């Protein structure tokens, strides 16, 4: 277990960050919209939803903002830039770019879990310019080159 420090911003008071089950991969992210002002995501529209949370990821890690399957399956609501990337040096508020891919409006209430955050190790590399690349069996084949 790796400690990940987080703070609740003023508009995140009372919200939290946690796993929904013992071995869940993703920390659920809550919507930090005002309790008396739910956010309505119109059909085929998007919104950047505040979570009221800021984190300090350990160097060598990233966090991915992933959709919740229940919202996607039941309401057509997903994370537009999935998986969103949270850099280890980011100290701003975590935000979730939700999109409503359905014909029905979707209402987001305060504290509702809108996405999940998966923390993962990340390889940081040094890009090295070279004259040519080593040969492989695949070569330049891609995008279905091996068949269906
Ligand atoms: O779904 C997301 C994606 C990003 N971020 C935050 C954390 C991340 O570290 C920062 C920048 O994200 P990204 O690199 O994807 O965006 P960019 O368009 O490249 O912006 P920047 O120029 O700030 O890197 O925004 C979120 O809160 N939620
Ligand atoms: Mg970036």
TrEMBL record:
Keywords associated with the record: Hydrolase, Magnesium, Metal-binding, Nucleotide metabolism
UniProt xrefs under Pfam families: dUTPase (PF00692)
Annotated EC: 3.6.1.23
Enzyme class, spelled out: hydrolase
One Gene Ontology biological process: dUTP catabolic process
Cross-referenced InterPro entries: dUTPase (IPR008181), dUTPase-like (IPR029054), dUTPase-like_sf (IPR036157), dUTPase_trimeric (IPR033704)
Cofactor (UniProt): Mg(2+)
Catalytic activity: dUTP + H2O = dUMP + diphosphate + H(+)
dUTPase-like domain residues: 19-147
Keyword Phosphoprotein among UniProt keywords: no
Pathway(s) served: Pyrimidine metabolism; dUMP biosynthesis; dUMP from dCTP (dUTP route): step 2/2
Residues that bind substrate: 68-70, 81, 85-87
The UniProt record lists the keyword Metal-binding: yes
GO molecular function list: dUTP diphosphatase activity; magnesium ion binding
Protein family according to the UniProt entry: Belongs to the dUTPase family.
PANTHER family membership: DEOXYURIDINE 5'-TRIPHOSPHATE NUCLEOTIDOHYDROLASE
Function: This enzyme is involved in nucleotide metabolism: it produces dUMP, the immediate precursor of thymidine nucleotides and it decreases the intracellular concentration of dUTP so that uracil cannot be incorporated into DNA.
UniProt xrefs under HAMAP family: dUTPase_bact
Protein name as catalogued: Deoxyuridine 5'-triphosphate nucleotidohydrolase
């Amino acid at each position: 277990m790796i400690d990940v420090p987080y703070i609740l911003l003023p508009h995140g008071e009372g919200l939290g960050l946690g796993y929904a089950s013992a071995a869940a991969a993703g920390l659920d992210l809550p919507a930090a919209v005002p309790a008396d002002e739910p956010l309505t995501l119109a059909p085929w529209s998007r919104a950047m939803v505040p979570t009221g949370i800021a984190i300090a990821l350990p160097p060598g890690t990233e966090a991915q903002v992933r959709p919740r399957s229940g919202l996607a399956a039941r309401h057509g609501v997903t994370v537009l830039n999935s998986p969103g990337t949270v850099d280890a040096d980011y100290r701003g508020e975590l935000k979730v770019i939700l999109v409503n891919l359905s014909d029905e409006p979707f209402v987001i209430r305060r504290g509702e879990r809108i996405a999940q955050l998966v923390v993962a190790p990340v390889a940081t590399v040094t890009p090295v310019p070279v004259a040519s690349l080593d040969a492989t069996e695949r070569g330049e084949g891609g995008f279905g080159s091996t068949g269906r």
